Amino acid sequence: MLPAGLELGVATSAFQIEGGAHDGGREPSVWDDFSHQRGRIEGGATADVAADHFHRVAEDVGLLAALGAKSYSFSFGWPRLQPQGSGPLNREGVAFYDRLLDELLAVGISPVATLFHWDTPSALRGGWLNRDTAHRFGDYAYAVGELFGDRIDRWVTLHEPATVMLEGYAFGRHAPGSTLLFDALPVGHHLLLGHGIAVEALRAAPVSGQIGIVNAYSRTTPQTGSDDDAQFSTLWDTVQNQMFGDAVLRGTYPAVADEFSRLLRPLVEASEGDLAVIHQPLDFYGISYAAPTRIAAGGLGVVAADGEASALGSLPFRFAPWPEFDRTPAGQPDAPEFLGVALAELGSRYGEALPPVHVAGLGLGLADRVVLDAATGVARIADGRRIDHLTAHIVAALDAVGPSGAASGVRLAGIQLRSLLDGFEWTAGYSLRYGIVHVDPNTHDRTPKQSFEWLQRVLEARM
User: Fold this and answer.
1) 220, 295 in Cβ contact below 8 A?
2) 172 with 311: CB under 8 angstroms?
């Protein structure tokens, strides 16, 4: 049984499921540009249609109602609502989200909205390398908050700013495809500044719901006990985890060892004024956990997630393998116990400064197969591995925050599973599917998977 008061919901993001890339006044995002470049995405896929959620809102909310979901996390598409990244909101984009919110509220589902899930409008030249984008994001947050602020129960400013900085600007594996390595650190700072400005804007709008942020969090350890491995593990932990958590929750950047002060100059030289803006009181703090990270000194080794990028060969360390764990189809160690370790580390680092925590985006990408039942002709998708994966992670989180757990001081407020629907999975295209509902790649018909039925039973049991 799930603890009373724990929110268990499902999540999606605009770019991954909406489609309608040329409908209703929407303009391109950096991910549209990136995905249309040859060789960037598995199979040459794009998100132009994706799961066609833009045209199937009522059907998809019906699936949520049938699931028994009490909350649904989605993201606003910035280029759909504000196609140029500035100026008035697009009326057709507003009408789309009005319809989504009305449908959700009509069936008693609590809306959880993310303002930015990676789809920076292409019109914002320089993207997050440009400090002005943080201010444009604040303007966008105010306009969206003013319009929808009475209908949304939780607001997330940014989803995984560390991933945007590292994968998009440092390593070039995500949009916009820049390979700046440590010169990408200003991107992280500007994202955090945008977060702080957006929190102020939402409160000024004002909105009635809670406000927080979600960051990717990966417990980072050295491969060996050597000083070099330990130093580079600390370096990676700084840019992946600590710079985001420390700035948001403490109003400081982490201390930097002398040998890394040049590499991390943007953190060392950050102004107190910017950090004060970033350090806003929050109602919750979200983490998105996929796998732990192991660091070893030296050249390029095994790289998980989206494959290898040539820029990684310039790093003075490598991402070492975890042979003791099975690997997910995405190439990551399948290590649910490290979610508990991550929660314990958060509690130890931030103590009373840590607000209630939401674990966001738990999921597993599989090459799901549709099988027709010979007797009935009904399509079935058996995804027992996904059920086992999700169950193990939920149990690990609950054990960690239990009375005798390593993270017993952490207030776990919710867990969001991804995804409601199969969608565009970034550089993997449609080769990996994360949905608990199968989406036919040709007709876009929806078929609930075995995991949908499992979650349905879990949610029924707690009512």
Assistant:
1) yes
2) yes
Could you give all domains of the chain from N- to C-terminal order, each with its CATH number?
7-461 (3.20.20.80)
15's CB contacts (< 8 A; 6+ apart) are 29, 31, 47, 50, 75, 77, 117, 118, 119, 424
Q: Cβ distance 399 to 424 under 8 Å?
A: no
Whether the predicted pLDDT of 133 surpasses 70: yes
Rg (CA), the chain: 21
Give the pLDDT mean for 428-450. Answer: 97
pLDDT band at 376 (very low <50, low <70, confident <90, very high): confident
pLDDT for position 373: 76
Distances (CA, A) of 334 to 110, 143, 163, 177, 314: 31, 41, 19, 27, 27
Distance between CA atoms of residues 425 and 28, nearest Å: 18
Rounded to 5 degrees, what are φ and ψ at 197?
Answer: -65, -40
Between the alpha carbon of residue 312 and those of residues 242, 317, 414, the distances in Å are: 21, 9, 35
Residue 12 has pLDDT above 90, yes or no: yes
- Are 81 and 90 in contact by the 8 Å Cβ rule? The answer is yes
Q: Give the whole-angstrom CA distance, residue 328 versus residue 364.
A: 8
Given a contact cutoff of 8 angstroms between Cβ atoms, the answer to whether 50 and 193 are in contact is no
Do 332 and 305 meet the contact criterion of CB atoms below 8 Å apart? yes
- Strand pairing category for 437-439 and 446-448: antiparallel
Closest of 76, 114, 125, 117 to residue 210, by C-alpha = 114
**Is pLDDT of 302 > 60?**
no
CB of 217 closer than 8 Å to CB of 346: yes
The pTM for the full model equals 0.96
Whole-number Å distance between alpha carbons of 458 and 393: 14
Determine the pLDDT at residue 102: 98
Whole-number Cα distances in Å, 191 to 172, 240, 274, 289, 400: 17, 14, 11, 20, 30
- Residue 404 CA to chain centroid, in angstroms? 29
On whether the CB atoms of residues 416 and 358 are closer than 8 A, the answer is yes
Task: Output the pLDDT for position 441.
Answer: 92
